[in-house]
Amino acid sequence: MIHTVNLYCTFISLEIYNYCFCKLKNYVNSLRYNLYSKKSNNNHYRCYKTNCFNNIGISSINLCRYFGSKAGCYIELVVNCPKVIYNADETKLVNVTDYNILEEKFNRIIQHLNHEVFGTNLLPTLNGWQVRRIDYAVDIVTPFVNEYTAIFNKGYIPKGFSLKEYYNTSFHIKSDACNYNFYNKTEELAAKHNIHINSNVLRLEVQCKTYKIRKLIKHYSLHSSNISLLWNESIAKDVITEAITRVIGANDFYPLNILQNKIYNSSLPKAYKHYAWQLVKILNSDIFNLSELCKIVDASDDCKKDLLRETLHLYQKRLTEKRFTKTKVAIKGLNYSYAKSYLNKINLSPIAIPQNCQAEYLPNPIKFLQ
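Request: output the structure for the sequence above.
Response:
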């Protein structure tokens, strides 16, 4: 349930940082690699990185330094846990029961770095590092991978998140706290790594950054961000469940015609049925997701142009102003929040299974975590 972990260790002095920098630079240059500066460098922050240890599971070693009132320096290791534990096998996720194997192999890597690169016991063993980022993930084997990614693309983008680019077969949103990556792992392995597997795998991944880790520490009453505390199955499942729920809710999924029958055969008052069905029909008849549809419903004429420009850019101009205006007219009088709440009362999602799918029912991915 874990993939990548970013571990950091603070240097107690600038002299140790400079010593580490020189030793690492000389070593990577001897291997014909580089210690190069990151693009994010500025007057307040400098970071230099190398990927020369990628083959043994250390995707990157970063040497970072802050200037000014918050001056400090540290070393960061980006650890690809499956590579470290399973000897470069990138098709797997790490189980929480594999912690002892990770610790043993990671400490061997540290011993190698201390002996071959730094010439002294500069870096601590695993227990002496803190977590800057941890990626919790689950793989779901299902023939309906692309149908699930289409459902996620119809979902809601939570406050603070942004959808940088639209993909038909994957869903990626980012925030300062964490990133959600829901995608076809089988296709990704074939395209990026030339690894071909027989099963269809849906990867649901949540990358927890520093702010999210602090919230996890507080919520679970942890005393630090030590990896031994965050290496926890319950925390991983809770984080992934929260991500799924925030985007597509907790209900299961049905084709449009079955959704219509369930709405009109429910115990909702007649007017509520009308608004619930109107929301479902409009959402699934156009390329809008729930967030965009909510904005369109609430958009005034003054902000319509800005919203249209943003949506046109996201969908590469597949959405015309005429279509936008037509949708705005069609939903006149619809209250998004009320319509959504009516559907929640009868345990239905407004998102329908894609029309080209033969399935008459798809369980919510949350059920695969239980």
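The two ends are 13 Å apart (CA to CA).
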